[in-house]
Amino acid sequence: MSNAMNQPADPDRGADRTAEETVVQPRHTDEDLHGGSIRRSVVAREQEEFGGMKFGACFFGWVTATGTAVLLTALLAAVGAGVGLSRQVETAQATQDPATVGLIGGIVLLVIILVSYFAGGYVAGRMARFNGAKQGLGVWLWAVIIAVVVAVLGWVAGNQFDVLANLNGFPRIPVNEGDLTTGGVITAVLLALVSLLGAVLGGLAGMRFHRKVDRAGLGR
Prior knowledge:
Layout: H1 2-6, H2 11-21, H3 30-34, H4 36-50, H5 55-78, H6 91-96, H7 103-128, H8 132-157, H9 163-167, H10 182-218
Helix pairs in contact: 5-7, 5-8, 7-8, 7-10, 8-10
Keywords: Membrane, Transmembrane, Transmembrane helix
Transmembrane segments: 55-81, 101-125, 137-157, 184-205
Region (Disordered): 1-38
């Protein structure tokens, strides 16, 4: 026993034993366990199943856009904003005769259309959850379809069926109200592009809310 106690320790054996007993634990971050890869996989599967343009959500987005345009136009007229957009100068009239609307009035009209269709796209994006840009495009397509249908009905049955003329929610197609001028065509195209831009941006914003929810539940 005294020999064993007096025997010097082998430093190499001690180092080997220490190396064998030391276990290197892999580091797992929250992102590895619950984060990016899992979230992206889940969202991809959900989008594959439920993605695409949702025409029902887009229709309600169009309803929202039209209602917002009506409210904003009425509010502007009610407060008597002297910017060239009076009760007699409205969306449809601006499309046919842009001279009736001044520069400031035209800018205000574009802002109203942009905000209205942003709201409509946002509603569609929130309802559909995925493909926000497509939902915004769907809102805009509904507006075009309704405008064409109402224009045809107005041309066939008369102005009493031209419902959008009273709502002033979207520039109409004046197939029964005289020839389009060059300025009117340019104004109509500009309004259409602004409404499309607003709807797409709104759809992306509505979808972004769901991505924030996914990050909160599944990690970043």
